[in-house]
């Protein structure tokens, strides 16, 4: 059941403790890493002189990076044997940095088992993309086998699988069906997702269609009333002319079919799905367990009780933490298997970073106020989970949102076309921010909270791009046509910001400062900054490459949290459950509790 290594660290480390000790030292002492993972934001790429590229990238790296083809750079960072690289060979300090990032990145290879897995019927696959099919097939088999191993090794059978944030319940539907036939509790906060999931349950034959007894006359009149009078045929007009007798009214249930609940019938030896609507604000599953015990008692011996496994495919942000904490907080939870994602949605337990280091820029000088407020909450459910990271070097380890957003990237999967597309989008957005700054739409803000004023003179340290950023303007996405040129992008952005109701605060100042901008001025910005697009793509690639370590740190923190509860947790580990090419967030955090004493 337990893999040879509790963390999939590279073979250069002799033990988990060796890996963890060196990982924590690296992320807190490497200036280059801390700059690339939290100290750079694309909005501010062109708003300072010297530019971010020349300020944050070591001098000896810059010429080599600018002459290296973007896809070749990706290969060198991710795949090639750096010791055998030929001319033009990267600087030795860059090669050492590449080696460092690689040795602190958890291994993501996944041995394919597709040919051994049960196939999903077409009814079960309705609504799934190939990525989801891959995830559901692999994870359903994984957690089912995990439950079997737990029972075989400790005689501690799992009675229910609780899926955190079940969404459309693709995973739960597979587990409740042949060959697994599991009892599933799907916990979901959005009512429309539960409604849609129940419709898919009927299609997949996990539930039965509701039997609807209708008064045919009244039902036809209801349909007629929904058709414009000039489009009704002769029979419909005759039906509409007849009055409804009082004796008929009580027999009329004219609700659409999708408003009737699907029918779930428990049968011995077959799977069952129970939906629980609600948002989980912590790992406490008391309400969920009460519903299971009150509505679906376990049909075994009188001594039997509810024994849960908490599971989730890609639970966003803190929801992963709630799933992991559930093993500690609930006696009924015997195991967990949680695959996290959306690290940018994590809150901060320790508050925002302290800025004694110039490399970690404030969480949201370059983003938005909501996350800044979240950062200041000192949320007990946020990152980090483990005591080890909370107390490391007394101050603890913090990751700002820029670092966590970059950890959501999948640079191993970037293609040339995809890379060029988002490099272009980032370039356009960075130039637009420079235009906003030049025209007074936004201002520079120093990290001590002061605002830069025109004509003021600051010390060189105060002027450093690492100590200053610009006010955010959250633009969001534009239509595809806006990404064909800088001119189209600027015009599309101005149109959105001055016409959409979402931008009431910025609308007037943007109209005032941007309305007289000419096409010639936009062309001049493109002429001036176009040659520097390679600077942006090079540093963005380095950021995404480095952030693989950020994800490794987040996952390691979750493992350390389980490990610190050794009085309750018998085994805990991390391993891959998906093919990275299909599903990059492919690391599952597993915890198995010490056997629960029988009554």
UniProtKB/TrEMBL annotation:
The name on file for this protein is: Methyltransferase domain-containing protein
- A Pfam family (short name) is Methyltransf_32
Can you give the residue ranges of the Methyltransferase domain? 131-348
Under the heading PANTHER family, the entry gives: CGI-41 METHYLTRANSFERASE, METHYLTRANSFERASE DOMAIN-CONTAINING PROTEIN
Matching entries from InterPro entries are given as:
Methyltranfer_dom, METTL25
